[in-house]
């Protein structure tokens, strides 16, 4: 096939698939590999065929991504189609691949570090954007409820002053509210990435007619999280990651290019290499393949999995297997256990206060708290507590037996705090919210200096092991010249 025919065929197929992706993105994505293969029949070594095949794939992906707004209108503001999400994922992979290729071609090995830095900045931006969007959505809902405005109309009006993702989310929520759905289901349909704890809190608050109070609590929690994010961070998370990568790359280069020369020189001098140099580099040489495998697993498996779990919202009513495994690990890990327990207690105390203030019985309040987005291990304790309370046992005694928290035992102890449980629960909610923030900051300011010290020792050890042989050679040269 001549190059002219390849260009003509590729151009026609690119136009056809661009139109098809606008109308049927799923079909276009499935059949695109066939079109790419048809163009590449001309030869994989033909640069024109490769360019036209890439043009077809790129036109299909871009057109499928751009088709989403039209699909939203046609499907009555339903959640985005899977084909659209798949197209976005492929497009991101393509962009990352091109960036990595250009980085490696222009900057050599340092292109990988540039890619890592860019990826960290993109992840950080998306996390901040997600939290900001959530805060804006719930602050708008809370302000509308406090002013007794029709929620659907208020969200539709507020959407008019926004653009992009925020506009679409509020329009979707307003649409489902207009259709007669409650706020929890409207959030589930119109805001699929709504945080699990907020969605679970509103779902249970609807059962006790305390939605405005629940929204106010969610606003307070989001506001506290936003304040924590704006505080000074002693060390950026990217620092130890990048430093370890640089150190291992440096040590790999030293083992390949420098260490053999040192060994040859010291062999001619009739002396062994310094012990520290032999220890560091021989240890690195022995375990280099293992360390490389660990880093590869971290970069290719652990980091993408962690990012996927970070961006995927939890669904406590139908918990994912990965979420249950993660909850079990965090609950039994010494340091993470405290944070999980405190966060679970914060949600439990907040909902118990709402339920009891609304006139619910204690067992009804506990049943609602057991459906929140708390740690799965803690929720099992709540369910056992509920079973014993429904079986007729004393509330405080059952709480003590199931270890749901000493503060809850104290709050429901009628011998000590008879009739003061709602006020105590309100005080406990404020305490847990501020205490969680305090301990988080304390742990951050203790942990990061320790990380900095460890990183400094690691770098110092490698630098010392590299320069000690140079000092030994200088001393030998001086001894040979000066009697």
Outline the structure in words.
There is one protein chain. With 483 residues, the chain is mainly alpha-helical. Helices cover 81% and strands 0% of the residues. It is built from 20 helices and no strands. It has helices at residues 3-23, 25-40, 47-66, 68-74, 82-107, 110-146, 151-159, 164-178, 183-190, 196-207, 211-230, 238-269, 275-311, 321-332, 334-357, 362-369, 376-390, 395-401, 406-411, 421-481. Helix 1 (3-23) packs parallel to helix 3, helix 3 packs across helix 5 (82-107) and helix 14 packs across helix 15. The longest helix is centred in the last third of the chain and has 61 residues, at 421-481. It is flat and about 90 Å long. The protein starts with a helix and ends with a helix. Residues 70-78 have low confidence and may be disordered.
Structural class determined from secondary elements: mainly alpha
Categorize the overall geometry.
flat
Please tally the β strands and state the result. 0
Mean pLDDT: 79
Number of helices: 20
Query: Termini distance?
Result: 81 Å
Report the portion of residues in β strands: under 5%
Please give the share of residues in helix.
over 70%
Helix-strand sequence:
HHHHHHHHHHHHHHHHHHHH
Low-confidence stretches: 70-78
Which value, in Å, is the CA radius of gyration?
Answer: 30 Å
Q: What can be said about the biggest beta sheet?
A: none
Give a nutshell description of this structure.
With 483 residues, the chain is mainly α. The protein has 20 helices and no strands.
């Amino acid at each position: 096939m001549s190059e002219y025919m390849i260009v003509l065929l590729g151009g026609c197929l690119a136009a056809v698939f661009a139109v098809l992706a606008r109308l049927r993105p799923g079909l276009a994505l499935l059949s695109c590999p066939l079109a790419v293969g048809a163009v590449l029949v001309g030869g994989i070594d033909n640069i024109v065929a490769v360019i036209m095949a890439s043009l077809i794939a790129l036109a299909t992906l871009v057109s499928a991504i751009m088709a989403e707004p039209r699909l939203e209108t046609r499907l009555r503001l339903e959640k985005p189609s899977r084909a659209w999400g798949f197209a976005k994922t492929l497009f991101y992979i393509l962009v990352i691949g091109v960036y990595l290729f250009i980085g490696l071609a222009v900057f050599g090995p340092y292109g990988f570090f540039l890619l890592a830095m860019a990826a960290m900045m993109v992840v950080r931006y998306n996390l901040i954007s997600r939290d900001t969007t959530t805060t804006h959505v719930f602050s708008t809902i809370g302000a509308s409820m406090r002013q007794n405005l029709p929620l659907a109309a208020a969200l539709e009006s507020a959407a008019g002053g926004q653009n992009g993702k925020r506009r679409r989310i509020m329009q979707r929520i307003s649409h489902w509210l207009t259709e007669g759905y409650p706020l929890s289901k409207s959030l589930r349909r119109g805001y699929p990435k709504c945080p699990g704890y907020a969605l679970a809190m509103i779902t249970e608050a609807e059962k006790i007619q305390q939605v405005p109070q629940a929204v106010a609590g969610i606003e307070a929690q989001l506001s506290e999280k936003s304040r924590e994010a704006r505080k000074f961070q002693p060390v950026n998370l990217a620092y130890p990651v990048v430093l370890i990568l640089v150190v291992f790359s440096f040590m790999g280069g030293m083992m390949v290019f420098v260490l053999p020369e040192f060994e040859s020189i010291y062999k001619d001098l009739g002396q062994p290499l310094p012990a520290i140099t032999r220890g560091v580099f021989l240890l690195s040489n022995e375990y280099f393949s293992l360390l490389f495998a660990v880093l590869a697993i971290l970069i290719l498996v652990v980091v993408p999995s962690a990012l996927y779990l970070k961006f995927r919202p939890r669904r406590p009513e139908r918990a994912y297997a990965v979420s249950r495994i993660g909850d079990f690990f965090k609950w039994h890990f010494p340091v993470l256990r405290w944070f999980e327990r405190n966060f679970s207690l914060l949600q439990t105390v907040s909902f118990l206060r709402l339920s009891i203030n609304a006139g619910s019985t204690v067992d009804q309040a506990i049943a609602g708290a057991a459906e929140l987005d708390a740690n799965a291990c803690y929720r099992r304790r709540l369910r056992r507590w509920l079973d014993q309370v429904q079986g007729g046992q004393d509330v405080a005694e059952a709480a003590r037996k199931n270890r749901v928290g000493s503060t809850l035992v104290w709050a429901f102890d009628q011998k000590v705090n008879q009739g003061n449980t709602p006020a105590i629960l309100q005080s406990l909610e404020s305490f847990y919210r501020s205490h969680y923030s305090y301990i988080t900051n304390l742990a951050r300011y203790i942990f990061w200096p320790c990380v900095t010290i460890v990183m400094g020792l690691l770098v110092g050890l490698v630098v010392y092991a590299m320069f000690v042989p140079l000092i030994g050679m200088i001393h030998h040269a001086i001894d040979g010249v000066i009697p």
